[in-house]
Each structure stands twice: as C-alpha cells, then as structure tokens.
C-alpha cells in the first residue's frame, strides 16, 4: 500500500498595484535574533541559543518565528516545479509512523540546511524548533486567500499550511511563510520583507485570509461562506487595524449608477485615500465622513468601474471587492 506525501505549496502572487509595503518595526526579541548567526550547525544548537536568551513562552515562540523569517526564503522554483512526491509501503502502523517521521525529518533538515522551503517546510521547521524549545506546536493545513480571483470562489482547496503554538495556555496563530516576504511579479523574484503581523495574529484578520481544512478553530466552527465571499485584505489592513465594517460582503452586486456605502476603521478623512477605475486611473473619494473611528463614504458604481475595485491609503492597498453588475 502506498501513502503519498502531499506537498502544501503557497504562491506569493504580487501585482504592483496590489502589494502593500510599509515600514516594519522590530520588537526587542527581533533585534536580538537579528544578531544571531544566519546558520547554525544544527536545529538543536539554534534551539539552545533561543532557550538561553529567552525565558518566556511568548519570547521563545517569537524568536523562532523571527529567525526563520529572517533566514529561510520561499523556494519559488520548487513551487513552479515541485519535486515528485515520495511514496512508501508499510506492513504495520508502527512502520508507517516511522517512515512518516523519516520523511518529515528529511524535510526539516533540508529546509534548515538549504535555507529555502515552501510552506510545508516552513511549518515543519517551526514545529520542530518549538518542540526543541519546550513549546507545543501543531501544523494546520487549509486554504489561503491572496489574489483578486479568490473573492467569491465557489470552493476551498487545501493549498497552504500554518502553525498554532501554545503560549501561556492559549493557542496562537502563526504563519511564518507569510512573515518572511512575498513574490514580486514585476521583478520576477521573491522579496524578503519581514512582517510580524502573522505572529500571534488576530483570528478575525487571520481567518479572512486562511481557512483550515477542518473548518474549525479550537472547536469553533468557522464560516466558509465568509471566507470565500469576504473582501480581499492586505498586510497594511491588518497592521493598521483597518477593519472593513461595510459592506458586509466582498461581492458587491449593483446596478449601473447605484451608490454603495463603505466604512473602514482608522482612516482619516484628510488621508490620501482613493480607488482605481478600470483604466487604472486614481479616483479620489468624495465627501468622506469620520464616524466613530471609521471613514464612511459612498462610491457610485458606473461603467468606469471594472470587475474589481481596490481602495488605497497612500500607496498601500487596503481592501478589494468583486463587482457584479446586475
């Protein structure tokens, strides 16, 4: 009997007008980890260094996240040309588990030594280092939402993986694959761009971009419909706590000439805020109002608006919606 090992690969798709870049501040843990060697002789040596420098579970978990994000890059070549999956036969459950562990150990060592991986390698390495540092961690497999075409998809697929780690008796969400950078289509290469927003992420924001295969988180059922039909948000959206409170769907069904009201948290009416029409021309938001910490405004949906509408704060994408003309 053959068991196929499934490789969970994540593509960082970046169109110039979609990527949100911003200045990233490092916390005290990150600043210490930045001084670490880029290479250690073994994962055990790295874990010992982390345990020596940090005592709290939170700091250890963050140090592992930071070191991986700083030093392991996304293997885009492997994404484009994935290696053939390895199969194996077994006669007992014990033999099956032993061979699975061998494959996992090989993946961890390859990711650590070559310093490149796809999401399967990132998550396996994070879990391994967490366990060496005395932390409990698990790998979660599921779907990811990253491009405009993901808005309003009909079904989820299992194309990504991330971690949860137990810190102070509470499970925290970790996606170190996304913490290390992104793929820049304009340059045709991966760009290292550390962000901390995928360490101990707010579940509301995290599950706007991730959906586990189980459909649950800590026993709580998640809404597949909200994930599939919600708007597309970006790193700056999470970092600035720009919660989208209206409309309540990423699918905007309108008639030509109809107005739609939007509300987005933590944006000033004096900010440089606009959207692009279907010719990629910027259109300034007219007559915005500040209400209870949110910017409220209307957009008239005429034939100048294309299939998608993306709002920008300065040069940064905040949120995208899919437009369905009735």
Automatic annotation (TrEMBL):
A GO CC term attached to the entry: cytoplasm
SUPFAM superfamilies, A to Z: Cysteine proteinases
Protein name: Transglutaminase
Domain Transglutaminase-like: 111-178
Phylogenetic lineage: Bacteria, Pseudomonadati, Bacteroidota, Flavobacteriia, Flavobacteriales
Annotated Gene3D superfamilies: 3.10.620.30
InterPro entries: CAP/Cytokinesis_protein (IPR052557), Papain-like_cys_pep_sf (IPR038765), Transglutaminase-like (IPR002931)
Pfam families assigned: Transglut_core
The organism of origin for this protein: Flavobacterium circumlabens
């Amino acid at each position: 009997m053959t068991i196929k090992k499934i490789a969970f690969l994540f593509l960082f798709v970046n169109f110039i007008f979609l990527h949100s870049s911003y200045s990233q501040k490092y916390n005290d843990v990150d600043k210490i980890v930045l001084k670490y060697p880029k290479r250690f002789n073994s994962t055990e040596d790295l874990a010992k260094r982390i345990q020596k420098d940090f005592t709290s579970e939170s700091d250890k978990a963050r140090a592992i996240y930071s070191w991986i994000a700083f030093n392991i890059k996304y293997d885009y070549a492997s994404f484009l040309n994935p290696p053939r999956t390895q199969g194996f036969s077994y006669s007992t459950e014990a033999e099956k588990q032993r061979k699975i562990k061998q494959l996992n150990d090989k993946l961890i060592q390859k990711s650590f030594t070559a310093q490149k991986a796809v999401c399967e390698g990132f998550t396996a390495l994070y879990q391994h280092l967490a366990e060496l540092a005395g932390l409990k961690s698990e790998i979660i497999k599921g779907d990811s939402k990253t491009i405009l075409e993901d808005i309003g998809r009909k079904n989820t697929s299992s194309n990504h993986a991330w971690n949860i780690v137990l810190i102070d008796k509470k499970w925290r969400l970790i996606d170190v694959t996304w913490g290390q950078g992104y793929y820049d289509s304009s340059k045709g290469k991966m760009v290292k761009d550390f962000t901390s927003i995928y360490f101990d992420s707010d579940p509301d924001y995290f599950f706007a971009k991730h959906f586990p295969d189980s459909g649950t988180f800590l026993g709580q059922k998640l809404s597949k419909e909200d994930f599939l039909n919600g708007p597309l948000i970006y790193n700056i959206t999470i970092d600035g706590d720009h919660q989208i409170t209206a409309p309540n769907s990423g699918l905007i069904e309108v008639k030509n000439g109809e107005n739609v009201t939007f509300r987005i948290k933590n944006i000033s009416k004096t900010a440089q805020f606009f959207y692009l029409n279907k010719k990629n021309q910027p259109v300034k938001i007219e007559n915005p109002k500040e209400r209870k910490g949110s910017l409220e405004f209307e957009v008239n949906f005429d034939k100048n608006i294309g299939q998608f509408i993306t709002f920008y704060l300065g040069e940064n994408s905040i949120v995208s919606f899919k437009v369905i003309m009735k």
